[in-house]
Amino acid sequence: NLPTSIDFDFNHPFDPLYPPRVLVVDMDGRETILLPEENDLF
User: Fold this and answer.
1) Which string of DSSP letters, residue by residue, matches 1-42?
2) Fewest Cβ atoms nearer than 10 Å: which of 2, 4, 26, 33?
C-alpha cells in the first residue's frame, strides 16, 4: 500500500499552465492541497 493517496481534481478545465489541484491525504488523514508552485518541492 502506498503511504500517501493522491487524488487528482479533474473538475476544472485542463490548462497546461495551471495543473489541476492535487489532494494529498497523508497517513494521519490530513488533507493538503498542493499548489503548482509547491509541486517543485517534490
Assistant:
1) --SSEEEE--SSPP-TTSPPPEEEE-TT--EEEEPGGGGGG-
2) 2
For residue 14, pLDDT beyond 60: no
Quote the CA–CA distance of 25 and 15 in Å, as a whole number.
Answer: 24
C-alpha 2/C-alpha 34 separation (Å) is 18
End-to-end, the C-alpha distance of the chain in Å comes to 20
Please state the pTM of the whole predicted model: 0.20
Cα separation of 33 and 36, whole Å?
A: 10
| Identity of the amino acid at 33 | I
In the numeric block, which cell numbers belong to residue 28? 494521519
